[in-house]
Automatic annotation (TrEMBL), chain A:
Gene3D superfamilies: Zn peptidases. GO terms for biological process: attachment of GPI anchor to protein. This is Gaa1-domain-containing protein. It comes from the Eukaryota. InterPro entries: Gaa1. It comes from Coprinellus micaceus.
UniProtKB/TrEMBL annotation, chain B:
It is a multi-pass membrane protein. The lineage of its organism: Eukaryota, Fungi, Dikarya, Basidiomycota, Agaricomycotina. It comes from the Eukaryota. This is Cell division cycle protein 91. One of its GO terms (cellular component) is GPI-anchor transamidase complex. One of its GO terms (biological process) is GPI anchor biosynthetic process. It comes from Coprinellus micaceus. InterPro entries: PIG-U.
TrEMBL record, chain C:
Pfam families: Peptidase_C13. This is GPI-anchor transamidase. It comes from Coprinellus micaceus (Glistening ink-cap mushroom). The keyword Signal applies. Residues 1-23 form the signal peptide. Pathway: Glycolipid biosynthesis; glycosylphosphatidylinositol-anchor biosynthesis.
Amino acid sequence: MDEGPPPAGRSWKNTLQKLRGRFKPEKNAAEVRVRRRRAMIQKLHQRLPFLKVLLFLVGYLWMVAIPYPDLGRTTYIDENALQPAQVSTYWDWADVHNADRYLDDLERLGDRNASSAELSEFVKTEFQKSGLPAATQKYTFSVGSTNVTGVNAYAVSSSPRASGNEAIVISASWIRRHEGGPTELNLRGVSAILALAKYLKGHSMWAKDLVFVVSDGYLDGMQAWLGSYHGSKQNNLQAEELLYASGVIWNALSIDYACHSFSHLGVFHEGLNGRLPNQDLINSFERISRFTGGVPVVLYDHAKNVVRHVGYQGPGRPSGIHGLFHPYRIDAFTIYAVCAQGPHGFHALGRVVESTLRTMNNLLERLHASFFFYILTDATYFNKIGSYLPSAILVSVGMMFHGLDIWVMSGWRLEEQPSEKVSSSSQERGWVSRQRPVLHALTIMMATHILGALVFGSLSLDNWQTLAPILFAVVAVVPLAALLLRSRHHSETAPVSTVLKALNLCFASTIISVISVLNFSLALLLAIALGIPLAISTPSSRLVQYPAYILLAAGWLLFLPEQTQSALWNWEVLSVWFAPVAAVVTLLPM
Amino acid sequence: MSSTLLQVGVVIPALTALRLGAHLAGASELLLHDQQLTTPLTSYSQLQEGLYLFNHGIDPYNGGTVRHSPLLLALFSSILPSSRDVAATLWALCDAIAAWALVQTWRARQNVSSSSRDGLVAAMYLLNPYIFLPTLALSTSSLENALLLLAVMFASQKKAAASLLSLAFLSHLSPNALLLLPPLVLILLTNPHSHLASPQKISFNAKKVAPLAAEFLLYTGVLTAASTLVAGSWRWIPQTWGTWFTLPDLTPNVGLWWYFFTEMFDHFRSFFLVVFSIHLLIYVAPLCIKFQHDPLYALFLLTGIIGAFKSYPTLADPGLFLSMTSIFPETFPYLRFPIVTSLLHLHSALLLPLFHHLWLTQGTGNANFYYASTLVFACSNGAAILDALWAGMRIAIGKDVDGYAVDQE
Amino acid sequence: MLPLTLFHYLLVALLGTFVRSSATQEDAARQFFARNGTSSHTNNWAVLVCTSRYWFNYRHMANALSMYRTIKRLGIPDSNIILMLADDASCNARNKFPGAVYANPGKHLDLYGENVEVDYRGRVEPSVSRSKRLLSDENSNIFIFMTGHGGNDFLKFQDNEEISSHDIADAFEQMYQKKRYNEIFFMVDTCQANSLYSQLYSPNILATGSSKVGENSYSHSSDKDLGVAVIDAYTHSVLEFLEGINKTSHATLQDLFGSIDPAKINSHPGVRSDLFQRPLDNTLITDFFGGVSQVEVADVAADDELEAEPEQQAFIPPHRQDPLLSC
């Protein structure tokens, strides 16, 4: 370049020569290539330890950073058709008065401890008084040796001018959402449903049927109702068939309102097995509540909390009865009235629900697929998939690299060559390839998974309390017993433990990255639970290490009785697969 | 202990019984309509539909749903009952026969009457989830696999007539199998033994090719005539064979065609149909020439290629290729990146059902998700084929020597 | 296949099959009508297109319907108007006021209440009747109004296909070559609307759009009962001005363009007049919006026949949508 552009003829020849050189190099092309490849591999290999640590570090730091709003962005509405908060609402003090009247009746029934049948009969009668076709549904779950029975009540308000192929469900459960604490009746939620049914029926612009459901119990009633509605079978459930049906349910909202008045409306959205509803729905509700109802919206009941989200989504338990709709491809959430001394009550709630239903009514097609992957850090802040998914994936990639590294290393052995000079022994050592006992390692992995399946299979709601310590002992002892059986290690083959570690890391990495799309929180928990422990595990039998791993693998049997119980209940009643997966997948000792 | 456990006489009955057990436990019910295990051309429910129409005197090929061969309809309506349990037994038996054929092929290749690996070979076939699940879903691809392995077994045992008849029947059900004729004929003319480590020019009597080809054509003609007799007209041909090449049914499957042709503009469609169909042809000659010293290996590679690229594959098609690797243990040390391929397969095996679920059951994903997972699956199939190809050629060079590297030109 | 059907949609409507031969005597007519402005047309046509479907695009249907109402008021008969509505907002189950379409939040005026003749709701069939074709000739002034969702150089048709600015330019050129118009006034209300007239190249076309390239066009107001926006800002501004116009008005297009305030509508309307021969301040609004009956003065000495407007005679009972019956 310094000499300026060369004459055109020469540059053309040069180019030709270069091109020829590229296709027909003078040196042996294969040799060049092999050398280049070796150099590249060498470089990669040199930097691998650093890269692995970096991947783990960035991954875990990213996880910690997820709750910070800087990583996310404010929510927005993606679907044009929704048109949230664009309508004037006509829910009035007269309707509030109706709701209060229903509440009086319900409280009277509640005070004299009315039975499920009485309560549902009352709801059904009130629906009918409003001019809606209504019915009740009895159901019985047999869980272990106990039976859970109840009666649901529901009514269908047909769309005046559309075909009724699509429906929206507005629901409330008798028992309001609770997390292990004492149960509380959702009386105001139910009265709101009754008053809304009476009120909404009188409007002409519903393009979808409105289905009002008052389900018994907390989760069980809705599970039975939805099962019957969709004709799905469940072995331990006996439920009456539904008398009235409507079309495909697209959206549902449930109302949870127990105290006298509320200051905020909370949103609960996590469904069964970690499915989330379309974010547009929550965003619409947030705007409607803020602009139409004048009620600020919070995530859950007190504060923004990613930990809480992970707590619901990871184990796959629903954060309210809305979660039961999700397996049927229904986007649903719970409106939770956060108890306070004012200022809002039925008036605000009714208006917000009316407007939200109008928005749901506007939907013309299913909400867009891109809006199902998010983490809400606040009612108005969220993380897109691209800003949270990499955290778990990075850890998973780190595990994969580590596993592959160990795998490669396990195929080689440093062997001291018979040499004359002792001083430079390191120079004389040579790498000798050796066999890897893959089949052996795979058998052990398979055995641990079968052990996990057996442990899970033997647990049930009836016997888990007695069985747990025994199983814990079994899980603790079996690997030790296996140690005794272990054959002697030959120098021609790699130690089983190394190969096992490599395969375990690769397998766990795969599981984490695959699950991250389905249930990110679970992937997150797995990445935390498996990432470092599997990466640093060694075959040594140090006294501290072994119990630690056993605790990690099977400690839940002993130390988390409540969680174990609820996971089992969820599995048996709601088919949440967290429990079996946790039992089967994570039992990877040694 | 392990030697008795791994005997063929134990492995095959035990694993066949396991299939029946799984069926009785309700697995068929669950899997019958799974799009990864059955396609419109292999689905049991469509076979039942065809049988119903057939038995009621309605031409099953009049509508657009039945795409099974008339011979299958005739077989199931006249010879075999169509009860679900009997069908499950039959499908399990088919797998048993296929496993047995694979073992026989292995023995013929080793030129021994029995070996310690027999049980392992059978188990590799019967325990392969890609084989196991389509059988539970009563997909007719299990029957096709059995036919293919029978054809290979007979060829290895030099039973030309039986081998060609099996292949004719197989290509009647699935025309892609025609591509396997050249390597099969080569096996019949030479031998199935392993010559991978010592490649040499093939020598056989070229005059014998024509009679074998003629024999194959004769069988094909007879089967075609029989089908036409059964169906009463020629209408079955576009409905069965034609489907493979014109892709009228775009139901998602694990292959690469459906999404591509869903997105395709109509005026490019015929062009790409031709390209996709013809593309499979280009592998036959190179593989048969390169592996002329070991035609069984050429056939094995072609099976993998067909499994990866056919228009309506089920998991059983790539599964057959994976299971067939068990009869070529001599190549294992020379596989190029076996761990990477295994991990790819592990990923795709988990991603396929997951994304299918996200798209069609849970509704949080869309078709692109599932398509992405079929791409991963295609990659893992491709990686497996490349590994096998590399190993088949690399073995001839022998063990690694210090200071030397093997490179691919 | 896709572009072809799209092309049909517009072309069939614009071109029709009618070819009319007439001996014009421009000089005589021009002299005769000189006091009414400088236009030499003898008949007026209008094509009003709402390209959007679905309930939440209510305002686009209202845009087209309000324009329809205005030009009818100013004298273009139904027979000379091609009205394309992609969807039926009046009969939507979500419409709280079945059978009515309003363009203002107070719901003062039901645009659907009077005699509305919608020519196209869906696709064009090959055997479309003459009453639905643009039977214009070389003396026709045509007003073309389009509204919907668009972008740079395209307008979405029924959420399914697109019409590009090139398509439009070519269609106009074809009309020019076939002598199907005297002058065209092309008005678009959509996002980046000005891009749609950027490719025009045929003479005697005046074009205007609601927003610059890179700019959105916004809705004007929404009705809280209907729950949707009822009209777009640009169309609203145009209509506001046109409300003050009657058939005998001498207001010019310059006045119309001058009346639109970019600050009010949040976008910058554009005018393209380089293809147009006349000065804008000498072009009456009624040249396009009004059906000012102008006649050709035939040479009586040469020919006794006085040609009246043939379109009026070729009147075919309109395809009328009775809102009350169809909802």
